[in-house]
């Protein structure tokens, strides 16, 4: 079984993904970490060196590779992964997609104190970040809403995700 966690940056895809994969016995891959390891660089430098368009192509190629190489896997995608090419359709065709939906104030709070480098929000104040996150989330919502399942990611309970997956598997 393949499971894809999608959602906005800081929605909890990576942290929930690790715990969920452990509970359901699937190998876990964070797509951004996979790309960084494969290209021996950071996402920030990859975008800087290759540009955003090429980064999105690399992201798609890596997603396809993981799908083709693994029948059983839990993949935490990047926030923009479902929104480019036909990635959301590919993920829906290949497995279970779960959208971790989180409100803007919670996302902004998490992003302000996140340890992970997030190229799309470099140098933004809290106010600028709130406006940017709202606008970007509105644009991405049409893709996120194509996920097979939507769950509230604010106070996510891993056991509820386990139950959801077990019901659908």
Description:
By secondary structure, this protein is an alpha/beta fold. It is 56% helix and 13% strand. The protein is built from 8 helices and 5 strands; from the N terminus they run E-H-E-H-H-H-E-H-E-H-H-E-H. Strands 2-3-1-4-5 form a 5-stranded parallel β-sheet. The mean pLDDT is 93.
- Poorly predicted ranges: none
Total count of domains: 1
The CATH superfamily is identified as: P-loop containing nucleotide triphosphate hydrolases
Strand order within the widest sheet?
2-3-1-4-5
Range of helix content: 55-70%
Give a quick account of the main beta sheet: strands, pairing sense, barrel closure.
5 strands, parallel
N-C termini distance: 7 Å
| Multimer state | single chain
Q: Report the order of strands and helices.
A: EHEHHHEHEHHEH
* Average pLDDT metric: 93
Helix/strand-derived category reads alpha/beta
- CATH top level is Alpha Beta
Query: Which geometry do the CA atoms define?
Result: globular
Beta-strand residue percentage: 5-15%
Structural Rg = 15 Å
Contiguous helical run count: 8
Give a topology summary:
Blueprint: E1 2-6, H1 13-24, E2 28-30, H2 31-39, H3 43-50, H4 52-69, E3 73-76, H5 87-94, E4 96-101, H6 104-112, H7 126-144, E5 149-152, H8 158-168
Parallel strand pairs: 1-3, 1-4, 2-3, 4-5
């Amino acid at each position: 079984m393949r499971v894809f966690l999608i959602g906005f940056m800081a929605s909890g895809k990576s942290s929930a993904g690790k715990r969920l994969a452990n509970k359901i016995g699937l190998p876990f891959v964070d797509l951004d970490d996979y790309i960084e390891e494969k290209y021996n660089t950071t996402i920030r430098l990859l975008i800087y060196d290759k540009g955003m368009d090429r980064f999105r192509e690399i992201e798609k190629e890596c997603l396809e590779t993981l799908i083709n190489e693994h029948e059983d896997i839990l993949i935490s995608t990047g926030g923009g992964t479902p929104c480019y090419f036909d990635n959301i359709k590919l993920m829906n065709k290949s497995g279970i997609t779960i959208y971790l939906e989180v409100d803007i104030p919670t996302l902004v709070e998490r992003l302000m104190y996140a340890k992970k480098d997030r190229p799309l929000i470099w140098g933004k104040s809290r106010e600028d970040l709130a406006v940017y996150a709202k606008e970007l989330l509105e644009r991405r919502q049409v893709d996120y809403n194509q996920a097979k399942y939507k769950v509230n990611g604010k106070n996510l309970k891993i056991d509820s995700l386990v139950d959801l997956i077990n019901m659908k598997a």
